[in-house]
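Expect chain and fold; thus:
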Amino acid sequence: MVQAAPFLLVLFLALGAHGLSVKKCSLTGTWVNDLGSNMTINAVNENGVFAGSYHTAVTATSNEIKVSPLQGSMQKGPNQKGQPTFGFTVNWSFSDSITVFTGQCFVDDYGKEVLKTMWLLRSRVENIKSDWKATR
C-alpha cells in the first residue's frame, strides 16, 4: 500500500491542477476584431443579459458609420463551464439593417480571452420578390 500512496498523490495533484487551470472567460469589456471593428459589452446581469455598443470598421453603405447599440444574452445555468456561448443583435444606427451574432468565448493557451462568432446581416428590401438578396 505504501507504493500506491505516491501514485494516488500524483494522480490527485494532476487532477487538481487540471481543475485549477480552467480559466473563465468574461464577455464584459471592449473587444476588437481582425478588421478593426470594436464593441463594448457592459456588465452581464445574473440572468446572462447584456447590452453595449458596436462600432464597425466595414460597411456596404456609403452612409457615415456610427456607433450602434447591441443587446444580447449569454448562456447561464448549471451546465455553464466557464467558456460561455452567447448571442447578440446589433441594430445599425446608420442603415436599415440588423445583424445577429452567435458565438463562444474562449481562453486560449496563452490565457487570452477570444470571441469566435458567426453572423447574419438582414437588410431591408423593397418587396417580397427581393427577399432572396436581403440576408448575407
